[in-house]
């Protein structure tokens, strides 16, 4: 009987501890995003907070961030996921499906999309290198690799504008650019 009385109390304590950890993660996110957005005009506070807090929610409170290092790792992972998503979007745009809007894309735009896919694939390697460098506390190399990753979105957009074509990826490229900027700003804090 004593065990049954202890069980609800221990459950309540466990729930409070989990909520406290998630709350502390959110405080860390807000404070870090405030500093990042103050130090880098490319990083928008609301974007930074939403991106990191969404990742915490998606992880269902498992291992909430407790340090700036945790936020950097989380930010790089978010950026990698975003690049993978963009590669998938490009693949769908290039599919030869009569119901797909690809039939309205010029041959030049299709070639640009193929190049963009390659750029984003390469950027995944840069982000992996950045994560390894960060974990070994080589912050300079981590920053260089994130900057290289950041260029994928810029180069992709430039290819379309060089051919006077409208990019179907502008919003995605801008988001990717800002995610990289966020990672870079967090590393440099």
From TrEMBL:
InterPro entries: Invertase/methylesterase_inhib, Pectinesterase_inhib_dom, Pla_a_1-like. Keywords: Disulfide bond, Signal. Gene3D superfamilies: Invertase/pectin methylesterase inhibitor family protein. GO terms for cellular component: extracellular region. Pfam families: PMEI. Residues 1-25 form the signal peptide. One of its GO terms (molecular function) is enzyme inhibitor activity. Residues 24-186 form the Pectinesterase inhibitor domain. It comes from the Eukaryota. Belongs to the PMEI family. This is Pectinesterase inhibitor domain-containing protein. It comes from Acacia crassicarpa (northern wattle).
